[in-house]
Amino acid sequence: MASPSGSTDPAADEKVRLQLAIFEVTREADGKSMAEIRGMLRAAFSRHGVDAPPATWVESVASSAFYGEPYIVDLSAAVAADALVPAPDGDVRERLAARRELQQEKLPAEIFPAPSEWNIPATQTTSGSTRTVSLTRWDSSVVLAAAALAAAVVAVIAVRAGTSRRRAPA
Question: Which of 7, 30, 77, 124 is most buried, judging by how many CB atoms fall within 10 Å of its CB?
Answer without folding.
Answer: 77
